[in-house]
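Objective 1.3, modelling of assemblies. Example input:
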Amino acid sequence: MSSGTDSTPRVNVDRSAASSSLARVVRFLTPTSVFGAAFAFLYVPTLFRLFETTWREDSNGHGPIVMAIAAWLLWQRLAGVAFSSSIDEGAKRVGWALLTVGLILFGLSRSMSIISIETFSAIWVASAGVVLLGGWPAFRRAWFPLLFVGFAVPLPAEVVDTVTGPMKIGVSWAAEHLLYALGYPVARQGVVLQVGPYQLLVADACSGLQTLLTLEALGLLYINLTQHASWVRNAALATLIVPISLLANVIRVLVLILVTFHLGDEAGQGFLHDFAGMVLFLAGLLLIIGVDALIRMAVRPSVNASAS
Amino acid sequence: MTDPHSTDRRVMLRAGIAASMMVATSVAASVFKPAPVVRKVGDTFDLASLVPPRVGAWEIDTSMAPVMPSPELQKVLERTYDQTLARTYMESGGQRVMLSIAYGGGYGKEMQTHRPEVCYPAQGFQVVGSAAKSQLETPFGQIRVTRLVATAGMRTEPITYWLILGDRQSAFGLDMKFVQFQHGLRGVVADGMLVRVSSIGKDPDREFSLHDRFSADLLGAIDAPARKRVAGLPIARES
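Predicted structure (tokens):
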């Protein structure tokens, strides 16, 4: 590239150095990195805000984990997928529509600081990216992690309030009847349970809403990862997680009450803060795996019958 | 046979357009972010001194405390909420009325936790039936209120409450979201005031009339700027 003259060697060196560093930069400019950079520009502040506010609360502890799992699955499933060169016309339209909706949601929620809609918009924008760059084949591989992010979106306060009340009453009712059946001296007033000399209030944290969301997320992840062919089994398990999680929550409240009754108030409060969450999780997990085993046993005989 | 370079260019173009749209939206959203309402120095007020200890024929009674949020919520509120007030007023006849005012951050989670439909059940109360919207007549104008009855054991407590956002009468739910949206477009963040009047009694209608009487007396006992703050009265014509 040098001109060979001594008068302007410096310019030539600079130019070739500039063009080679430009070439280096250009090599990193893939469609993915361009979209990814814009995505990061939009949503890294959202992530920071989530860490500082919503995800600080215990009730939303699963948020970062869900995001991490979704990101990892997305990476795993889209790595190596070629860009869609001859992209479907329909896919292009859907992609732009998804992006438009996502950006409207983002714009409004970012300017008005509504973190739940802001996080929700990320699903639309990310889906748009997958569809626009990879077409339907890419979307088919990526739809689960994209929708899975939904579990990390903070629920609006109104929804939580509407649902938590009846759930608390349901848990209290179930706990009252179970304790009575087991022979304990129990009385109930709304969400306050009187067991022997102890009075316990079923607080919002015990309503089971958080458990329901966490276990449903876990269950759906389990179903998606185990990739079982039978859609009956998948649908059945996904639906049964709802009563399973409610049952797991009642178990937690029951165990807490029994600990308080037999071991005193302090033991009960200690249990509440240290082990209750773990007990709940394990109970739910065991129930899910157990129910899945039962479903598989029910499905298998029909499979054998059709094979023979 | 498609030229691989041209298909790369098409994908690249799409990525580029999408990225530009995204960045533009983000920048626009930051530019149009509303700033909090800047209140004039004279506007800062002390809730406790705004509400006088004598309201008409009513005087503060220290023997009864209004229902407050649970301790776990109280900690959150102390961290975030601007000012709260909880008082019991008593008449010479022995009638008692509980007044609870929460002033602060506008339409965030803080305001929602003070909402009686949430605050009372969280304390172990049960809401009888459903909350009903109503109008409270005062000599200074009408107030849009919500009325409900909460019970806990022997305690039956009819409640009347209203919400003021940015000196305007509002209500929880869609109304609040609409006001928030309007404020957002104009670039302001309003402050909010939740006023709750309740009493103990088995006959809701009788207690609600009591609330009406107390509220009218309260508005009469404070000056005009305070009336605007506390009840959004007089109602401004939409500009």
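The CA atoms of residues 149 and 244 of chain A lie 22 Å apart.
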